[in-house]
Amino acid sequence: MTKKTAYLIILSIFISGFFAGNFVEPKYWNNAADFLNAKKNEIRYIEKLSNIPQFPKKDFKLGLDLQGGTHLIYEADLTKIDKQEYSSSLQGLRDVIERRINLFGVQEPIVQVQEKPGHYRLIVELAGIDDPNEAIEMIGRTPFLEFKEQRSEEETKNILDKRKELEGKNMQEIQKIENWQLGLQDPYFKSTELTGRFLSKSEVGFDQTVYEPLILLQFNEQGSKIFEDLTTRNINKSLAIYIDNVLISAPTVQETISGGKAQITGKFTVEEAKELARNLSAGALPIPIKLISQQTIGPSLGKDSLDKSLKAGIFGILAIFLFLIIFYRVPGILASFSLLVYIVFMLFLFKFIPVTLTLAGIGGFILSIGMAIDANILIFSRFREEIKQGNSFSQSLDQGFTRAWPSIRDGNLTTLLVGLILFIFGIGFVKGFALTLSVGILLSMFSAIFITKTFLETFKATKWEKRQWMWK
Fold first, then answer.
1. What is the 3 state secondary structure string of 47-101?
2. Which residues are within 8 A (CB) of 457 and not within 5 positions of it... i.e. 6 or more apart?
3. Total domain count for the chain?
4. Which pLDDT tens digit goes with each residue over 335-371?
5. Range 387-407 average pLDDT
6. Among the three residues 248, 277, 294, which one is the final residue of a domain in this structure?
7. Phi, psi (5° rounding) for residue 107?
8. Percent of the chain scoring above 70 in pLDDT
9. Nearest Cα residue to 262 out of 226, 209, 210, 212
10. Are 292 and 217 in contact (CB under 8 A)?
11. Coil, strand or helix: which one is 147?
């Protein structure tokens, strides 16, 4: 590597670190930008210049144990479901519950399916909720599928007129108005007797003409008769399909449908068609669920855990920097700086992706810092030995990195393999730990092998390389 290349790489590292650091903590840059923009507007000749841009503000995504919330585990009863439909039924149930939670207003909930021999569970994490009991009650309801037919123009007009009559009135005034309940109804669709309990099967098919995905429905004998009557009286009208009172599709009836088979067409992607089929199946085949575990973490406890974790991390990193500088002198200073860059880049990734940070995840991040330190120590120890044997600075540097690499590679790859196994087979906090550890290991190898070495390359062929006390 030439000196010019090394300097260009270092410059790019500084620029990247600057932008990453301000993305992680934009407060200082944004405050300075506000101050300078205000001053600029007071100066006559430069007031028309563009304002200094600000970095976007984005919070870290914190897990349940850091911001408080509720962790729920449900046991699903699949005794009445065919074994071939276990996975799709659970996935459909997960989709419905996730939709309910989103309607409840929980930000970024985590809903996971856990399948083990003899046990089928649903794990729900609700961060930052004030009333876990209300959320539990909402989750525990059975998914409800229903078909609604289109109202006549007269019915729609009457309901809309009644709604206008109720506008701006409190509940006591509303109840004095004749037939006030009419204004609370859906003005466009009305319920029918056809619900999910008459649906035998829902699956994805493909139109043989245009090869687009569609939804195939199969009703039981009683449902077939109801569906035939319903389609007969609604030709060229919309037939709306609701799950938990949320409209998911409103196909137009083209003709009377007999035999209990129907299809829903539309501009679906394959994934959208699969999700819709799962949701219909979840409504048609209700899966009873039982709450078997509930853990609630208060916001104050979560904040206390976060503060203690940050404090422990800062003290630990400062202790590492002190150790490196005392024992390895200039290489230790350069390694400390490369570790700072590594930490900034890791925090940038956590915010940008974003990664849900939990206590376990922070533990994985700190452990990956230890792996980065380990790589630097292996390199510096070998580099020091080469210098003591009388080799030049350039030879010692090249040999130090070359001979330390096999140990660094093997140690990091074995840890990375364990991290991948934990991520694939683990759940909840284990996945968070595995993710931050794996990402940290990959970035730490880049930090130790590339950034630290580039810093050391700038000392080649300078008067500093001959000062042995700096390197031994």
1. CCCCCCCCCCCCCCCECHHHHCEEEEEEEECCCCCCHHHHHHHHHHHHHHHHHHH
2. 1, 3, 6, 397
3. 3
4. 888 889 989 999 999 898 888 788 888 888 888 888 8
5. 85
6. 294
7. -80, 125
8. 91
9. 226
10. no
11. strand
Closest residue by Cα to residue 141 from 96, 103, 106: 96
In a domain, 315, yes or no: yes
Give residue 126's pLDDT.
82
Same domain? For 274 and 307 the reply is no
Strand order in the sheet with 213-219: 199-206, 213-219, 261-264
Contact 263, 201 (CB under 8 A): no
Q: Residue 29 is part of which domain span? A: 1-58
The CATH number covering residue 318 comes to 1.20.1640.10
Segment 386-413 shows an average pLDDT of: 86
In this structure, the answer to whether residues 239 and 129 fall within a common structural domain is yes
Whether residue 281 contacts residue 96, with contact meaning beta carbons closer than 8 Å, is answered with: no
pLDDT on residue 130: 62
Residues of the chain above pLDDT 90, percent: 14
CB 423 within 8 A of CB 354: no
Instruction: For residue 392, give the 3-state DSSP assignment.
Output: coil
